[in-house]
């Protein structure tokens, strides 16, 4: 569904990912891990067609990204960022309806089918009763769900999320992770999300993609936990992390 082929990304002389290849399938929830500044957002931006590819290619649903016109790309990849939409007077259902833009006619008029998809998308994220609530009246967790509903309404096989659990408390982080897992499995989406929540990645994801500059390791979660990569990358002079038990230890 999503293939990186000998992909090199970076800015100017600085290479973040060098000649990386990986493949992600439909029905898979994948966490993208890496230290601050390792290139998670850069990779997600590149896959969503916004970044520059220095070498190699990205294939989406069998088509090369660079050959896809923007309107076609919008039917294959939906992106959710941490930017929070807080516009008073904008109903949740209006935000979700934005996801239908690639399909609505030139005046942007919604057909009955679009309205049905908007309602279904809100229902899938458990926000059906919020349709006529305005975006300024909601918590961060609720907003994040609405933004995911917008991505679902876009009806794409691939969904990318950049740190969707930032700003959420612990129960809501797990709830959001569980929602993404359910959507990947039940709706057969290929979902790739960046996160600093190692515990959520290790407990809820099917696979983990780990940026080990300038490499990208992609392994099923249990194998990644045993691989030692996470411990090596996420330790410093103050803390160490055990990926098999999910425990953090402070060094003396
Ligand atoms: P974080 O966990 O902090 O979100 P990240 O893994 O998402 O980090 P990126 O935002 O992809 O990291 O940035 C990777 C590196 O590239 C950083 O060192 C950043 O300063 C640099 N960078 C990001 N955007 C640009 C840009 N437009 N031009 C030049 N350098 C950039
Ligand atoms: Mg980032």
Write structural notes for this entry.
The protein has 252 residues and is of the alpha/beta class. The chain folds into two domains: 131 residues, P-loop containing nucleotide triphosphate hydrolases (Rossmann fold), CATH 3.40.50; 79 residues, no CATH class. Helices cover 32% and strands 27% of the residues. The strands form three sheets. The protein has a six-stranded mixed β-sheet with strand order 6-7-8-3-9-10, sandwiched between helices. A four-stranded antiparallel β-sheet has the order 2-1-4-5, with helices on one face. α4 packs across α5. The protein is globular, with a radius of gyration of 19 Å. The mean pLDDT is 91. It comes from Candidatus Alistipes avicola. Part of the ABC transporter complex HmuTUV involved in hemin import. Responsible for energy coupling to the transport system. InterPro entries: AAA+_ATPase (IPR003593), ABC_transporter-like_ATP-bd (IPR003439), P-loop_NTPase (IPR027417). Keywords: ATP-binding, Nucleotide-binding, Translocase, Transport.
């Amino acid at each position: 569904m999503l293939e990186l082929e000998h992909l090199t990304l970076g800015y100017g002389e600085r290479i973040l990912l060098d000649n990386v290849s990986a493949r992600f399938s439909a029905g898979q929830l994948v966490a993208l891990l890496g230290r601050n500044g390792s290139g998670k957002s850069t990779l997600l931006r590149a896959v969503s067609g916004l970044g520059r590819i220095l070498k190699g290619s990205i294939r989406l649903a069998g088509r090369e990204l660079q050959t896809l016109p923007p309107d076609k790309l919008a039917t294959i990849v939906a992106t959710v960022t941490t930017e929070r939409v807080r516009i008073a007077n904008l109903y949740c259902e209006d935000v979700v309806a934005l996801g239908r833009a690639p399909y609505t006619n030139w005046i942007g008029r919604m057909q009955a089918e679009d309205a049905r998809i908007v309602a279904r998308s809100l229902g899938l994220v458990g926000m059906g009763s919020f349709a006529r609530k305005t975006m300024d009246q909601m918590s961060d967790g609720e907003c994040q769900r609405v933004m995911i509903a917008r991505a679902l309404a876009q009806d794409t096989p691939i969904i990318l999320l950049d740190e969707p659990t930032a700003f959420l408390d612990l129960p809501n982080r797990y709830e959001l992770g569980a929602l993404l897992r359910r959507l990947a499995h039940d709706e057969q989406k290929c979902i790739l999300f960046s996160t600093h929540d190692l515990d959520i990645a290790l407990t809820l994801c099917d696979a983990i993609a780990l940026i080990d500059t300038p490499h990208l390791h992609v392994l099923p979660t249990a194998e990644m936990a045993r691989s030692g990569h996470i411990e090596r990358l996420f330790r410093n002079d103050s803390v160490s992390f055990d990926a098999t038990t999910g425990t953090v230890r402070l060094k003396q």
